[in-house]
Structure formats: C-alpha cells, structure tokens
Amino acid sequence: VLFFGLVYVFITLHPRYRLMFWRVGLIGAGIVIGFAVLQLVLPHDILKYLGYSKDTIAPYLTVDENPAYIRENSTLRGPNPLGAYAGSVAILTVAYVTARWRQLRANSRHMLLAAGVFIASLIALWVSYSRSALLAAIVGITLIMIVKVASRITRQHWAALILTTLVLVCVGWAIRDTSFVHNVILHDNPTTGANVDSNAGHLSSLQDGIARMIAQPFGAGVGSTGSASLLSDEGVIIENQYLMIAHEVGWLSLGLFVWLYYVVMVALWRRRASWLGLGVWACGISLALIGLVLPVWVDDTVSIVWWGLAALVIATERGTRGTATNKKAA
User: Fold this and answer.
1) CA-to-CA distance for 88 and 82, rounded, in angstroms?
2) CA angle, residues 139, 201, 81, in degrees to nearest 5
3) Cα–Cα distance between 176 and 130 in angstroms, integer?
4) What are 176-200's pLDDT values in tens digits?
5) What is the DSSP letter of 49?
6) Tell me: the pLDDT tens digits for 39-65?
7) Directed axis angle between helix 300-316 and helix 2-13, to 10°?
8) How far is Cα of residue 89 from the mean position of the Cα atoms in its chain?
9) Cα(190)–Cα(266) distance, rounded to whole angstroms?
C-alpha cells in the first residue's frame, strides 16, 4: 500500500517515467517466467547454489510430499507466489492481445511474442501446481473475455461454449479416480508421505484464523502471524489473507484495507478502456480470490507489482463513468 502511494505521487509528478516503470515490469516478468520454464530441464535443486535451503527458502517443494510432482519456485520464495505471479502475467497478456488484436494480426512478430509470453506464463503457472492460482487465472481471463467480447458473442458461440463446458465436465468425471486428479487437483492421495494433506491444512488454518479473529478484535500485533511469528515462542500461520490481517491489526484495520482495495478497484474499472487498466483490474480480482486460501497480499513480489501497476494506471489513464468501452482508447 505504501508503494502504491509512492508510485502514484511520483508518476503524477513525473508522467514521463511511466514507460520506464512498465519496461522494468516487463524485464522482471521475463526473468521470473523465463527461469520457471528453464527449471523444466534444470536440476530441481539448482537454487541451492544461490543460497536456497531448508534453513532459508526450500529450492523446491512437492505436492503433499510426493516426489513425482515437483513444485518449482522460479526466483520467488515459493511455488504459490510463482503461481499467483504467472497467472497475473497470463491475464495481462490476454488483456493486451484482446485490445491490440488488429495490430497484432498485421505484425506476426509481435503476435508470436505475445503468444510466447502467454504460453510461458501458463507453463510457469502449471509447474507451480498452485490450484488457487490456476482457478484465479481462469476467472481473470474469463472476466476480460466477458468485458471485451461478450457483446459480440452470437447464439452459436454460446452453444459451442456450453457444449465445450459439458465435454470438460464429462472428462473430469471420467478421470476423477486417476492418480493425476488425486495428486494435482484434489491433493488427497493417501499413499503420499504427507502426514496431513494440504486440504486438511487449509481447513485447520481457516478454523484457527476465525477463532483468533473473534477472540482478538483489536489484533495481536504486527508480526504475530506468518514468517515473523516463527521466531517467537508460538508460531502462528493463518493462510487466509483477510483473517491474517484481522489477527495482526484488528477488525477496523481489516475494514480499512478492504475499503482501500475497493476504491482502487473502482478506479481501475473506470479505466477499463485501457488494456492495462482492464488487465490490472482482472488481476486484482484474481489475487483477491487467492487471498481466501493464501496470504498473497503479503508476498513481496506479487503485492508490490500489482499495487505498483494499479498506481501507474490510476495516475496516467483517464477514467470514465460510462458503461461502454471506448474502442479507440483501447
């Protein structure tokens, strides 16, 4: 949130640096996504040579301690942040392509570049094995498609979409008892080495977070949960981002955070004529959904990038209260 304020003030005073901010974001995405793709062929523990370890950050994780399913980190601090970051890159790429479709069709080089970024981000999302990030990315991309092309969808398109959905549901039902589904989708394979599967862990964390929030309406103090709390006598891990905020700084502060998020999202929605405004808005929805099961807003990379981009859009794009998307501006 502090970074959001800093970027907003700086870009408002010095709008000429907008392109520089955007280029830095592209370079960062290239490094993170590119290294995630390279990890498909590199040794799984390659990050140990850069200081990753069990005492700092594990160089890789597995799905419920099943070595057959390796969860990659890329250059981030874990697979879940990688999934959230990669999903955001995929969403922004879709927003760009839908807005620049005619120009991209006329420039095959740029089209191939956009397709490469999208495919690479999906690969990074997949190797993270983050279910929440995958679902959130689907929601974000769907929202963009609804906003951009829903008015041009014919009955035939809707029929094809419904048929495709039914086929996918049938396929999912047919493979429901396979090892892939139990390990990757459900995370409940009883033959793995995990004492408690991740589903039970999420449920336990949710129950504990609710109980602590009710018991401490004014919060237990900054650092009383998460990584910082592991240095104290009682380590507390609350995976729901919003319960985590309430536990640390109380109900009022949670309300302030939600209000600020709402104000920013409304401002982004009013700038949806810009592909970046629409993309950052869809990413905001996506990350908010991930926050229901993971503390995504306290992950440095993901949070700073989103809040920074939100400030960039709000400071430079002109908002509108109209409901129609300005095609020329897009």
Assistant:
1) 10
2) 45
3) 19
4) 677 666 666 666 665 555 555 566 6
5) G
6) 999 998 898 888 888 888 888 888 877
7) 30
8) 8
9) 45
